[in-house]
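Model it.
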Amino acid sequence: MKIQAVSVFVDDQQRALEFYSEKLGFAVAADIPMGEHRWLTVMDPDAPTGTQLSLEPKDHPAVPPFTEALVADGIPFCSFAVDDVHAEYERLTAAGVTFTQAPLAQGPVTTAVLDDTVGNLIQLASFAAPGAE
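Modeled.
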């Protein structure tokens, strides 16, 4: 069994696509019209058979209060692994991305949290090599 796709709920699929592809660097895996919305997924361009991230519309009535509560409490919806949080923070800040948490070392993991512009906080995390804490 493998994880094929996971979803992040977004306010606007087109704006989400632009942010996740142009700012974060993900590649479009699927963009299929589905009536008012699209089946829209992005992926790591270096792992074309890896897990896809579905940019899912926030149409279900339970979704907006859930995602708004997470943002209000500063809780990231999901976490993306990066090689170097500090480098990604610098690159993305220079590209105009807003962070709600600057890089923070917490033992073997360093995290930062960004605003994805479509209703979510996303955590970036990098892990130190064992014994390198």
